[in-house]
Amino acid sequence: MTNEPKAPALSETPSLTSSRHSAIADIAAERQRQIEAEGWTPEHDDKHAACQMALAAGCYAMFASAPEAHRAATDMPRSLNVLGRPLKGWAAWLQLWPWDRKWWKPTTPRRDLVKAGALIVAEIERLDRAALRAAQEGGDA
Q: In the chain, which stretches have pLDDT less than 50?
């Protein structure tokens, strides 16, 4: 099982003045948790060269935009589709999700966006490492 943090209580919700710092700090903390608790090290991430982390981030970000009724129900907004096919229910997100179902763990919209942000950071870092390796080898990333 993971060391997934719980969503903050209302009293722990960041104030408007500290929300930017809190959001960035929360994304950095989630990225660190992914590395330390899950073992998603840079070496592990480099094996996901087909941009799976970007796709996973997109899944969490899109799901965060779903109205609460749709998050809890089996129907997704009709406007969401993939290649012209409407997304239907929780299974729809799994059509896009790049990994095993056990790793799809949406919670609250804010927490899902924090996960998305951390996955985006991981993907950017992976792209940067690939570009650096390619430059050192005299090739393309």
A: 1-2, 9-11, 74-75
> Long-range contacts of range 88-95, CB-CB < 8 Å, 24 or more positions apart?
93/59, 93/62, 93/63
Inter-axis angle of helices 109-137 and 19-36, nearest 10? 60
> Helices marked H in 1-141 — which ranges?
19-36, 42-45, 52-64, 68-72, 89-96, 109-137
Query: Rounded to whole angstroms, how far apart are CA atoms 109 and 30?
Result: 15
User: What is the C-alpha to C-alpha distance for residues 113 and 24, in angstroms, rounded to an integer?
Assistant: 11
Per-residue buried b or exposed e for 87-104, using 16+ beta carbons within 10 Å of the residue's own CB: beebebbeeebbeeeeeb
56 CB-near residues (< 8 Å, 6+ apart): 97, 98, 99, 103, 119
pLDDT in tens, 117-130: 999 999 999 999 99
Helix (H), strand (E) at residue 81: strand 81-82
* Distance (Å, whole) CA 2 – CA 43: 20
List pLDDT tens digits, range 36-48: 999 999 999 999 9
